[in-house]
Specification:
By secondary structure, the protein is α/β, with parallel strands linked by helices. It contains twelve helices and twelve strands. The strands form two sheets. A six-stranded parallel β-sheet has the order 3-2-1-4-5-6. Strands 7-8-9-10-12-11 form a six-stranded mixed β-sheet. Helix 4 packs antiparallel against helix 5. The longest helix is centred in the N-terminal third of the chain and has 16 residues.
Length: 330
């Protein structure tokens, strides 16, 4: 799915677009992570405070481990069930328009759009404006900036969505994208009443036995490549069938792989179908794994990136390792 790029937008310009439109559809990338769901929720709470009609959409819905988040309205998975015909589509946390789902293509053909994101390489597909800032830690941080500009306090569900976005994309404020601004924003929300401890408990206590079993087997299967500079784990379709786990159960596993001493790049390769593979990459410092993902049609950030590749896993892994070695060797 492609769309002609639109103009860049400042926070003030993006807020003006929201103010000028009603009946707003909010959509984030499919198979959402904490930032996508958190930003979706916080944008909904912001629009409610602005007195707008809005609907929340995600092609695959919320993953089980994030269903606890207090959304301001139902999360639709079919556009035919929306309560209105949208006048504006607000997209969140999606560096690639195609990740929003093919059903959204018809809406984009007829409806103005505003694109809010923090991923490198976002092509600016929003027709009315593109507020894309890869210096912020999470897309939820952009929603917080809009709320500040609108004079709407960061409390309640709005703050909870922003906080989920931040802890998801910063590894609970441990990754290199943890900026002073992200920490200051969190401190401000806590002063306004955010129950950070309660949210962290709900976020961290969603494990199933199936997930524990999957992680246990994968920890034993990790392989070190390139004299220990690369950590590789591969997840086969039969691993899910054997353990009863689902793909969402792999959230944060690649970050754990990166904790092995001497590892500069962690690579998690997961089969989605017999010849469809999802890759997740993590690094530190100047090791640019975004270049690896981009070479296979994916995206992300300097130290965190991913892609979905139509290729058998056995053929893809050697190509990935070769490209990572080139990056590590400068």
């Amino acid at each position: 799915m492609t769309h002609a790029p639109g103009p860049a937008a400042t926070v003030a310009e993006a807020l003006n677009i929201l103010r000028q439109n009603d009946r707003i559809l909010v959509a984030a990338h499919s198979n959402p992570d904490g930032d996508a769901i958190g930003a979706t929720s916080s944008m909904g709470w912001l629009l409610r405070a602005m007195g707008k009609q809005f609907a929340l959409y995600n092609a695959t819905g919320a993953p089980r481990h994030l269903e606890w988040l207090n959304l301001p309205s139902p999360l639709h998975t079919r556009l035919a069930r929306l309560p209105f015909r949208p006048e504006l589509v607000v997209t969140l946390d999606s560096g690639d328009l195609g990740r929003l789902g093919h059903e959204l293509a018809d809406v984009f053909a007829d409806c103005p759009s505003l694109n809010l994101d923090h991923h490198q390489g976002n092509p600016g597909y929003g027709s009315l404006g593109n507020l894309v800032d890869d210096s912020v830690a999470a897309t939820g941080q952009i929603v917080a900036a809009l709320a500040d500009a609108a004079g709407i306090p960061l409390t309640g569900g709005l703050a909870e969505g922003v906080y989920l976005s931040l802890i998801a994309d910063t590894g609970s404020f441990s990754f290199g994208n943890t900026t002073p601004e992200a920490l200051e924003l969190t401190a401000r929300m806590i002063r306004l009443g955010l129950d950070a401890e309660g949210l962290r408990f709900r976020h961290d206590s969603q494990w199933t036995l199936a997930k524990a079993n999957l992680w246990g087997s994968l920890l034993q299967s990790i392989r070190l490549e390139d004299e220990g500079r690369i950590a590789l784990a591969q997840v086969r379709l039969e691993d899910f069938a054997r353990t009863g786990a689902v793909k969402y159960d792999l959230e944060q596993f690649v970050e754990l792989m990166r904790c092995i001493a001497g590892v500069r790049v962690a690579l998690l390769v997961r089969e989605e179908a017999p010849e469809v593979v999802r890759i997740s990459l993590r690094s530190r410092g100047t090791d640019d794994v975004h270049r690896v993902a981009a070479a296979f049609g994916g995206g992300g950030h300097l130290n965190a990136a991913g892609a979905t590749v139509d290729m058998p896993r056995e053929k893809l892994v050697p190509r990935l390792l070769d490209l990572i070695r080139k990056i590590l060797n400068g």
